[in-house]
Amino acid sequence: MACLRHAWATWQRKAGTPTHELQRLGGWKTAMMVERYAHLAPDHLESAASRLNAVFEGYDLATFDQKEKRLASLQAA
Fold it and tell me: Looking at the whole model, is its pTM more than 0.70?
């Protein structure tokens, strides 16, 4: 039965279910127990990490300058 609980929690997490919702659905008392049951594959974390890509689009991430301004200043020099 515990094996099914692990699989269910992992499937829920991969489907995007947040920890607090998963905690209530699974009946765990703490978020730490949810994390013990809901194992994540690294590829699933990639989608979470990429959520801010649109925010930083158009910026040089090394300097946080806007790329267009940076190119203009380099061309003017």
Answer: no
